[in-house]
Design a protein that fits this description.
By secondary structure, the chain is an alpha+beta fold. It has five helices and eight strands, in the order ββαααβββββαβα. The strands form three sheets. It has a three-stranded antiparallel sheet, with helices on one face. A three-stranded antiparallel sheet has the order 6-5-8, with no helix packed on it. The chain binds zinc ion (ZN).
């Protein structure tokens, strides 16, 4: 196994990658660290798909499909296994979803360009499920 050391061309942090694992990924081969590769993929997906970023005050990043927030897919295919959430975006929108996906805590490098935009609450209990007609 070989390792590759250097500074990430995007965030500048020193890194060590096991090239056997990641060298086939073009962004990694060209000098991004794995973290920047991951986050660039997230930003591309929220720019191109129906999924939108949900960023909390502590910079936890989730995505939700705002066009189709309630999915009828089997629970095992859904984010958080279909747990219900209520998202309050700072712009006033409120979205209820059973398909929330977590990507992780946004690294310092990306925070200025991706500020918090929402808060969300875990929705629990049978009454709420009935109210949402699930
Ligand atoms: Zn990086």
């Amino acid at each position: 196994m070989t390792t590759r050391e250097g500074n990430c061309k995007t965030c500048g942090k020193p890194f060590t990658e096991r090239s056997d694992n990641y060298i086939h990924i073009p962004e990694i081969a060209e000098g991004d660290c794995f973290s920047c590769y991951h986050w660039k993929k997230v930003w591309t997906s929220v720019e191109n798909d129906d999924f939108e970023s949900v960023i909390t005050e502590d910079f936890e990043h989730h995505t939700v499909n705002v066009q189709h927030p309630m999915s009828s897919d089997p629970r095992s295919w859904l984010g958080y296994s279909g747990q219900l959430w209520t998202i309050q975006f700072y712009d006033g929108r409120e979205v209820r979803t059973n398909n929330l996906w977590r990507q992780g805590n946004i690294p310092e490098f990306w925070r200025e360009s991706h500020p918090p935009n929402a808060r969300f609450a875990y929705t629990t209990g049978e009454k709420v499920a009935k109210k949402l007609e699930l």
